[in-house]
Amino acid sequence: MSDAEPTDREREHALVVAAQRGESESFAALVRLHQRRAYAVARSIVLTHEDAEDAVQEGFLHAYRALHRFLPDQAFGAWLHRIVANAALDITRRKKVRDADTLADTVASPFRDPAESDELKRRLSVALESLGDRQRSVIVLHDVEGYKHAEIGRMLGIPEGTARSDLHHARARLRQALSGIRSQL
Predict the structure, then answer these.
(1) Cβ neighbours, 10 Å, residue 13
(2) 11 closest CA partner among 59, 72, 85, 52
């Protein structure tokens, strides 16, 4: 079996160990490997593209600084995505403190179907904005990004049951906010 190709998990493990030894190119490879998913995690939490980019950058920087504490037998992606989610939540909290009266004009809306009307997009944006940060994060991470409840719980630092409950309540609020929209369009 020595001829067998290493699995993705084995390659990631080797990159982590090399990065922990100080090989910066190995950490850069980890960044390339996880940057798209990290962005998706951040974007599900924050309201703007710019904030998502900031959260990803802060998350990777924090991960680099904390790399010596990471246990290589763990899943690096899950560890990193939790750091990015926390960075995104921190950005959201800082913005609320800085400007509690003003909401951003845009919202994380992965539901970009060209056939949708402008009114539907507007209503969806308003409905997503009406959700709390955690509910919005949970619904986007689950329904759009495909994460499981346990993964979402780990990323957001909440119990799996809370992630399930938040998803249920977020869906109910979106259904209520968007009820009757077909007859109005």
Answers:
(1) 17
(2) 72
Q: What are the structural domains, with CATH classification, of the chain?
A: 1-102 (1.10.1740.10), 107-185 (1.10.10.10)
* E strands in the chain: none
**Phi and psi (nearest 5°) for 121?**
-60, -45
The one-letter code for the residue type at 89 is L
Task: Give tens-digit pLDDT for 5-35.
Answer: 778 888 999 999 999 999 999 999 999 999 9
* 118 φ, ψ (degrees, to nearest 5): -60, -35
Q: What are 90's two structure tokens?
A: 């921190």
Q: Mind giving me the DSSP string for 146-176?
A: ---HHHHHHHHTS-HHHHHHHHHHHHHHHHH
Listed residue (125, 115, 132) closest to 48, CA to CA: 125
User: Can you read off the two tokens belonging to residue 13?
Assistant: 């493990």
Instruction: Answer whether 108's CB lies under 8 Å from 140's CB.
Output: yes
Mention every residue, 6+ apart, whose C-beta is less than 8 A from residue 68: 20
- pTM: predicted TM-score of the whole model, two decimal places: 0.60
How far apart are the C-alpha atoms of 84 and 94, rounded to whole Å?
15
